[in-house]
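Colleagues,

For the teaching module next term, I've prepared a clean inverse folding example: a structure given as tokens, and then the sequence designed for it. I'd like students to try predicting residues themselves before seeing the answer, so please don't circulate the second half yet.
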């Protein structure tokens, strides 16, 4: 079983003018056994998008059909894409020390980043983060789900 690092950055609950919004698409929902197939991000400075990052990722395994039905990314689409080690390095260079922002990143996306940065380089990722899921639960009470 791969090493799963604990959260390394602090969870923030405040507005910041500079941050990186990101999202991962994966082969499934387990940060222990599934792999990333896409990383997409935008860099925001002073409240304006100033840069974008996106890459498909070859997960070096089959993407199940039901998952393709969710995000639309197939084996054929990723076969010539970089592996996650290369894609993660590029993403971390793009993000720098900026605060990460995303929906459900504390329980999902960050776990993939933490796990693989630790496994590949013995590195911890120290970026603070804002998870919009906690805001959604406070503001949009009573929903069946907050996806």
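(Answer key — instructors only)
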């Amino acid at each position: 079983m791969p090493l799963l690092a604990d959260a390394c950055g602090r969870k923030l609950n405040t507005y910041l003018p500079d941050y990186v919004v990101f999202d991962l698409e994966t082969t499934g929902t387990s940060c222990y056994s599934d792999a990333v197939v896409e990383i997409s991000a935008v860099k925001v400075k002073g409240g304006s998008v100033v840069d974008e990052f996106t890459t498909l990722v070859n997960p070096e395994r089959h993407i199940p059909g039901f998952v393709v039905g969710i995000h639309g990314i197939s084996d054929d689409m990723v076969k010539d894409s970089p592996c996650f080690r290369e894609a993660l390095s590029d993403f971390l260079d793009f993000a720098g020390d900026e605060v990460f922002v995303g929906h459900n990143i504390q329980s999902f996306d960050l776990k993939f980043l933490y796990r693989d940065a630790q496994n590949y380089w013995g590195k911890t990722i120290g970026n603070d983060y804002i998870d919009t899921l906690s805001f959604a639960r406070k503001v949009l009470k009573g929903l069946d789900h907050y996806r």
